[in-house]
Amino acid sequence: MARLNANYYKLAAGYLFPEITRRTKAFLETNPEIKLMKLGIGNTTEPLTATVIEGLHKGVNNLAGIETYTGYGEYHGELPIRTALRSFYKKRNVDIDVEEFFVSDGAKPDSGNIQSIFCTDSRVAVQDPAYPVYVDTNVIAGRSGQFNQDKKLYEDILYMPCTEKNGFIPDPPSEKMDLIYLCSPNNPTGAVATKEQLKLFVDYAISNQAVIIFDAAYSAFIRDPDLPRSIYEVEGAKKCAIEINSFSKSAGFTGVRLGWTIVPFELAIENVKPGDVHKFWMRRQSTFFNGPSNIIQEGGVAALSDKGWKECQELVNYYMKNARIILEGLSRMGLTVYGGTNGPYVWLKTPNNMTSWEFFDKLLYETHVVGTPGSGFGPSGEGFFRLSAFGHSEDIQQAVKSIQDNLRL
Amino acid sequence: MARLNANYYKLAAGYLFPEITRRTKAFLETNPEIKLMKLGIGNTTEPLTATVIEGLHKGVNNLAGIETYTGYGEYHGELPIRTALRSFYKKRNVDIDVEEFFVSDGAKPDSGNIQSIFCTDSRVAVQDPAYPVYVDTNVIAGRSGQFNQDKKLYEDILYMPCTEKNGFIPDPPSEKMDLIYLCSPNNPTGAVATKEQLKLFVDYAISNQAVIIFDAAYSAFIRDPDLPRSIYEVEGAKKCAIEINSFSKSAGFTGVRLGWTIVPFELAIENVKPGDVHKFWMRRQSTFFNGPSNIIQEGGVAALSDKGWKECQELVNYYMKNARIILEGLSRMGLTVYGGTNGPYVWLKTPNNMTSWEFFDKLLYETHVVGTPGSGFGPSGEGFFRLSAFGHSEDIQQAVKSIQDNLRL
Hints:
- Two copies of one chain form a homodimer.
- Chain A has 13 helices and 15 strands.
- Chain A is an alpha/beta fold.
- A seven-stranded mixed beta sheet of chain A has the order 2-10-9-8-7-3-6, sandwiched between helices. In chain A, strands 11-12-15-14 form a four-stranded antiparallel beta sheet. In chain A, strands 1-13 form a two-stranded parallel sheet.
- Chains A and B meet through helix 3, helix 5, helix 6, helix 9 and helix 10 of A and helix 3, helix 5, helix 6, helix 9 and helix 10 of B.
């Protein structure tokens, strides 16, 4: 008799975004005439740039000719895109071998699947709040206990609180952990770790033989030249860190699907031969994945070209202007806001000690703006609220104006 | 201290195709002047059709305009492609709801990941020989014992021998199994199960509360109108079977990446609410995957249009002509060959009781043709050899001629 993976039953309350959809739908059923303004999901809205479009058309045209047609490619992406990525990192003085890149269909699949090459009883630490995929995939893999309804967390997962007090960047844990998920610039708080802060984690990981899974999906949004865009800007990180990144937010590829993961050859853990972590991930990808789309890879190569990247930076600037509009608009109302200067998310402290979901409903019903409740990202997100800078500028302005005009504080 | 998933260490001898690459490279190092003819990996070689190319360009152009740009889409694909798939099945009188389709980046990821929604101690049965992904992903998930070097199989996995005697379609197992992988038209044997043969498995699955994972990736290659192209042509199959299919071989999307999986709402197992298998797969996809590429989906919709599918059928005919060339060319030499009439693979019995790898080397060194050793697909593949019909027709003809002229029998 077949049975389902019982770990799925542990997953609490469903994924955050479906619940937002449910409440939004309920609102629209009773208020069908109202047009909602969405600052919720971090979804790109602006068209791809000219150079990227050209690259993608080239990718399509390649497949129309017998000389340029290609079938199955390399499991970790073709050499041109891995070479372009190598050059991209070189600009930040980070030296990554072309064979250390694993190009994929996105940062989400990679950050979800990476845990599978580690043993089931690995002890997992996450920033709290965090992108739900880190926790959910480890729950499904059996690395957690039950969801504790009082504490709003899974037993046996270590939550590292990101609070106003620590500037939303936690210190390394005092316990010995095996896998540590870090995201900087952070989703949802918008906080960015300095080199010194990352160095603490790198030192911790090396001395505890832990592996850091570093999600850098928002690195293109960093404006401050001193902040690290890659964990490999920190000495020793190649010995202990896997980095995941994406074209989704920098190039507008949320629906196009392209990302990459770096597993350094140097990454070594006790009792495991150097290079074995790299080899295991290659084995995982070659068994469960058939390489990123050849068409989309051409788009990625175009995005990483000098001209393409300049255009992508303009896209990023566009969204960062939105972030400033949100930040300034809400501060002016006396609201407490964080993030939004080196990352596309504004992390708002809910007024009057409201819970995140109370504020969600208040914002929805009073201002017709949809955001994301901070508590959906972990218990320390309670009392906070994420506003996303992704959207058409005029819509963002309208949403901020509606909050200013209609939110009853 | 982080540790790796020890199940990876069980994986025997690496994936089949890397070993072929290794031996081929070794040959070329001592014979650099020789041009090899590849009938090994089932990789498409012919350009995409005009309608599909047009669809893909449209997909790219959509992303260039602010009105047509799209970001994140549905985790199981947009409605147009799911509607097109529904119509596609309707032509075979198979009624699938648009919500039962999960469009993905290919049949390989789906056939690899589907096991993860079932519990770790599920008992797995595979056809022997079989596409290595079914076994390898279950080994990695911990459902097997060690690899038995004498028997050339993993302990605790049930291998269902596909032999000359049973026409390469086995009977259902006599033991109670939980997950049963079936592939028809079969890779590697080219055999196609009749409705009656599939009905035996459906009846078995229903009475044992087992789930059939039916890989129909080669269904477009079936010429005989009476053979089932979908397991849902068999009564009762929706109660017990998940079907996986792909645009890879029918539309030339091996490098483009698009496939789909059907999890019927009706699919039910004891102790599990009806619809829960469907819900679990949706949860898996929404947690680990971000939907198939919006650009590629447009290519899929174009392929499924009347004009597009007609063109794709011509592509399929092209490869099936190759299959006939191989079949006829080798029969004429007195070799025993199977498959190749309703699927793109020819399954050759090695002459003189040679092992599959002995014949691989012989074929490589005497005729400069690369094929795939049957033993790489499972112990019952020993003494057989897979030749793929994917390739330019002139190359296939040349390869067959070289075998006829140079193979010393």
